[in-house]
Amino acid sequence: MSEKRYFINPYQDFGPSDGVLDATGDELNGRVKEDLMKNFTKLLKSFEDEVNETINPNDSSVYTGSTGYALLYLHLALVFNDHKLLDKAIAYTEPLVDTSGKRRLTYITGDSGVHTINAYIHYLKANQNESNISLRKLKKLVVCFADNETQTDVCDELLYGRSGFLYSLLFVRKFIQTSHEIIEDQDIRAVVDAIIKSGQRTAKRDKVSDRCPLMYYWHQKQYIGAAHGLMGIMSLLLEAKSYLTDEELDKCVKPTIDYILSLRMPSGNYPSSLSNPYDRLVHWCHGSAGAVNLFALAYEVFKEERYLMAAKDCGEHVWEKGLLVKGYGLCHGTAGNGYAFLRLYQLTGEEKYVFRAVKFGQWCCAYGEHGCHKPDHPLSMFEGLAGTLYYLTDLLQPKNSRFPGYQIS
Ligand SMILES: [Zn+2]
């Protein structure tokens, strides 16, 4: 395989005169911010010139559809403290809320994304009734993800499975203060329970429980990465740690994370699946970029130095090989990889990581000038420009940034 997947990183790494933060460490300094915002404004205009012509009424997802556009405007409303943008956001979700049950169900690819985002926008607009209506629709989906051995079509991974639904429940509980009246602890526990039981059953069946107590398949493969595999599922279980028993955390989740660590390849990357052990993909969806959040969470929860080292190690690999030929998106593009550095800044407080995140942002500002592949959905949140715009604005307040659909805390 000699196909070129990444560009040689042309940037000098962080040096003593390369400060990018203001005195508080909370925001970018004026010069860096001004330059990014100039480019952001230009890119936002090209997004807005085209977006309404690309709406596909059959695609409501955050990943490639209308809810992704809602999520972008919701994010911009919060970052720029401009509540008028909430009206733009809601215009994308409102037409979708009554067509539940006909699509996929997770946050990134289905109904729970629509209900979560619609509930949050209404909450911010102080429309409590409308917010509650969406929360109740979200609650109705819990039963679809609860443990049921006969329900073999339910998977556990982030994009299409239980952990992707768990994200929605955790998100509303964290950001919508009134949500606990509708989304109860037992709802979250039911989904956590199902994820753990499903992983234990599969590990037992495969006779791997002694080294990896939780194992999962998606399309007949044991995936490792954030989108379809163990990294994404373990990250969401750690995000939900207060709903797990100590025994589940210590005897199931922790050894499974250690198993993932054991799969590290000499370059510092991780394989996309057990049956595809090649060192090729450095994406959020597959490989080291998506691993950073998992190891960061593991360090925050278990306080063991080796998880911090593993997270930093992934950061080095992403800095070297993370400017992607696939483009500038979140799922398998340079913006998504930039989140690895923002997460490392949150973990370590080292300015070097914001510098690197900014460099990846500056690379994205030259959108379309590197001869990258054009994604199938060029404006979308996870493949295209909406995700890049989301990342550029997340750079402004690095401590508050979160990879959408993946990071809660
Ligand atoms: Zn991807």
Describe this structure as you would to a colleague.
With 409 residues, the protein is mostly helical. The chain has a domain at 1-53 and 326-408. Helix content is 51%, strand content 0%. It has 15 helices and no strands. The protein has helices at 30-50, 66-79, 84-93, 111-124, 128-140, 142-145, 162-175, 185-205, 230-239, 246-262, 288-302, 305-321, 334-348, 351-365, 385-394. Helix 13 packs parallel to helix 15 (385-394). The longest helix has 21 residues, at 30-50. The protein is globular and about 55 Å long. The chain starts with 29 loop residues before the first helix and ends in a 15-residue tail after the last helix. The model has no long low-confidence stretch (mean pLDDT 95). Bound molecules: zinc ion.
Helix-strand layout with pairing:
Blueprint: H1 30-50, H2 66-79, H3 84-93, H4 111-124, H5 128-140, H6 142-145, H7 162-175, H8 185-205, H9 230-239, H10 246-262, H11 288-302, H12 305-321, H13 334-348, H14 351-365, H15 385-394
Helix pairs in contact: 1-14, 1-15, 2-3, 2-4, 2-15, 3-4, 4-5, 4-7, 7-8, 7-9, 9-10, 9-11, 11-12, 11-13, 12-13, 13-14, 13-15
The structure holds zinc ion (ZN).
Residues 227, 283, 285, 331-332 line the site of zinc ion.
